Amino acid sequence: LNSFLIALIHSLLMVPIYPIRFVFPNLYVTVESFLYATCGETLIPPFLLAPRLKVYCDTLREIEPITRRRALVIVNHQDSGDVPTMMSVVTYFKIAHTSTWIMDKMFKWTQFGVPCQWHCDFFSREGSKKGIVKALRKHYSTTYWERGGFLKNRGESARRWAIANGLPPLYKCCTPRATAFTNMVQAFRGEVAPVPGTVDDVVDITLAFKGPSVLNVGDVIKGTYTDKEVYVNFRTFKMADIPQEEKGMKQWLYDRYQEKEDMLKRFEETGEFTPNSTMTLIDLPKGRLLGNVVFWYITAVFLYDFYFCILRNLWRFASGLVL
Questions:
Q1: pLDDT tens per residue, range 104-159
Q2: In 38-84, where do the E strands start and end?
């Protein structure tokens, strides 16, 4: 219920703000990015999430410099609980307002998808080149997400697809459909059409849940899960190291997911992604998360008066015309 209400309040607030985009575009970007970040952090109730979700990060020193630059991010996707996990990560690094999500069209009209539409995030089922280039031209964000699909829902179909295409089947993560990835790389390199800004880094994030089960949003909202530990590994690559030809780009991505498979197997056996790795517990800013909740519900009160006043005056105007 919280996520639906926050998404509704966000949309009602964006309606009067949106015209600013055509007069003061820079101001609009600043305001919209702030609202997008606070909305994303509030969609999952922080008072349920923050105390019980422990997020441990590996190789933090490697990722921190990248958060100050634009980067293309690829993430394995096991369940819907990955969303609050990644929101925790981007909140910790203070990059929620500069993050852009690329996701399946099925999420476009969900409580998560509607705020993303205001932010010009990209929804695609096929990862079309024309659509991605158009989206990247509009985006002012600095971090992009490309995902391989829910493991629990698409694992079997992903393995069948991999075998049919001569690729080794993966059991700890889904074989990614590489079309969107190759189109983005080509766009960032200027091979398809000019896209503003440069992207020099690719960040590979691997998520692993400790224990037999993963986390899903339903468990978070209902509060039916026990304390859950999520482990996050970061690896960085240079965009220049990705092959130029499309076939090589796809193979590069498949190789990264094969490495993810090996890392997840190792984590399951030893509790480590790599030998002698050091995990750091992310200290989520609980005060700020709770402050976001208060902000949105206070905003709802002002919006109620705002729209009530507009509707009342419209009713009076319409009644005057009838009389």
A1: 777 788 777 888 888 877 776 654 556 666 666 555 444 444 444 556 667 788 88
A2: 53-58, 71-75
**Beta strands 53-58 and 279-281, pairing class:** antiparallel
Residue 219: strand, helix, or coil: helix
How far is residue 156 CA from its own chain's centroid? 24
Q: Residue 179 in contact with residue 39, Cβ under 8 Å?
A: no
Phi-psi region of 211 (alpha: psi -120 to 50; beta: other; left: phi over 0): left
Other C-beta atoms lying within 10 Å of the C-beta of residue 225: 16
Buried b (16+ CB within 10 A) or exposed e, 171-209: ebbbbbbbbbbbbbbbbbeeebeebeeebebbbbbbbbb
Could you tell me if 101 and 116 are in contact, meaning their C-beta atoms sit under 8 angstroms apart?
yes
Contact 217, 4 (CB under 8 A): no
Beta carbons of 200 and 235 less than 8 angstroms apart = no
Residue 66, token pair as written in the block? 């990248």
The number of CA neighbours under 13 Å toward the Cβ of 50 is 17
Q: Partners of 236 in the beta sheet?
A: 203
Q: Which residue has the tokens 């999420």?
A: 107
Amino acid at 279: M
Q: What is the mean pLDDT of residues 8-20?
A: 94
Structure tokens at 213: 């089960």
Cα 95 to Cα 33: distance, rounded to the nearest angstrom: 10
**DSSP type of residue 165:** T
Q: Note the pTM of the prediction, 2 decimals.
A: 0.78
Length of the chain counted residue by residue:
323
Token digits for 15? 């309606």
Strand 201-209 and strand 71-75: the pairing is parallel
Based on the number of CB atoms within 10 Å of its own CB, is 129 exposed (0-12), middle (13-18) or buried (19 or more)? Answer: middle
- Nearest Cα to 99, choosing from 39, 21, 183? 39
Q: Which helix (H) or strand (E) holds 103?
A: strand 99-103
Q: Locate tokens 């969609």: which residue?
A: 43
